[in-house]
Write a structure and sequence with these properties.
Layout: H1 3-7, H2 14-38
């Protein structure tokens, strides 16, 4: 039996688990990235825009470089 036959066999849940991990990871990356973007300094022209209610306020100071 080859490795390909083992991976695509009846009892294998590899493709489902593999896909689920990537979907959950993508959703997490988009969510965390959106929160980080909304809490960052605004680009020119966006300074007066309001933050959405679903995005939490993150308190922090800019590091002095």
């Amino acid at each position: 039996m080859t490795l390909l036959q083992v991976a695509t066999g009846e009892g294998s849940a590899f493709p489902t688990a593999f896909t689920a991990v990537y979907i959950v990871g993508f959703i997490a990356a988009v969510t965390i990235g959106s929160i980080a973007w909304y809490n960052s300094k605004r680009p020119p022209g966006w300074e007066d825009k309001e933050r959405p209610d679903v995005v939490p306020e993150v308190d922090g100071e800019d590091p002095k470089v």
